[in-house]
Design brief:
A 3-stranded antiparallel β-sheet has the order 1-2-3. Strands 4-5 form a two-stranded antiparallel sheet. The protein has a single domain, classed as Lysozyme, CATH 1.10.530. It contains 7 helices and 5 strands. About 55% of the residues lie in helices and about 10% in strands. It has about 150 residues and is mainly alpha-helical. It starts with a helix and ends with a helix. Helix 1 runs parallel beside helix 3 and helix 3 packs antiparallel against helix 7. A hairpin with a 2-residue loop joins strand 4 and strand 5.
């Protein structure tokens, strides 16, 4: 599966667009739609001013990595909305956090398990603090996950 329009929109809405490098909630260098600047090849982005089109390219590159990993990690068939919600979660928190989460374990046992909503809501901390923005995002992801 690949990320659908709803998944991309939720990511862009919650990440927001920033044309210059900024530090995210935990102090990591970030640009565009929340793309981490984390490799030597990307160091030029720390001083760049990018367009929305360039940010979209960076977003889609990151989504490709997440999609490949998520498709391998999934053991059950899920809907497009469920996939998009999980991609948004992984984009924000990292694929490693999704991989080791109870959220993914529950999805792989029974994608319709209603307690999956609670698992989304456990991931609302950054820098040791509960962030209202993360609470809102997790609720939106959970709502998308369970949308028919």
């Amino acid at each position: 599966m690949i990320t659908g329009k709803k998944g991309i929109l939720i990511i862009e809405e919650f990440e927001g667009f920033e044309p210059k490098m900024y530090k995210d909630a935990v102090g990591l260098p970030t640009i565009g739609y929340g793309t981490l600047i984390d490799t030597k090849e990307e160091q030029w982005l720390k001083t760049a001013i990018i367009t929305k089109d360039q940010a979209e390219v960076l977003l889609r590159r990151e989504l490709g990595m997440i999609e490949r990993n998520l498709n391998v990690m999934l053991k059950k068939t899920i809907t497009q909305n469920q996939f998009d919600a999980l991609v948004s979660f992984a984009y924000n928190l990292g694929i490693a956090n999704l991989r080791s989460s109870t959220l993914l374990k529950k999805v792989n046992r029974n994608p319709a398990d209603t307690t999956i909503r609670d698992e989304f809501m456990k991931w609302v901390h950054a820098g040791g603090k509960v962030l209202k923005g993360l609470q809102t995002r997790r609720k939106a992801e959970a709502d998308l996950y369970f949308k028919k």
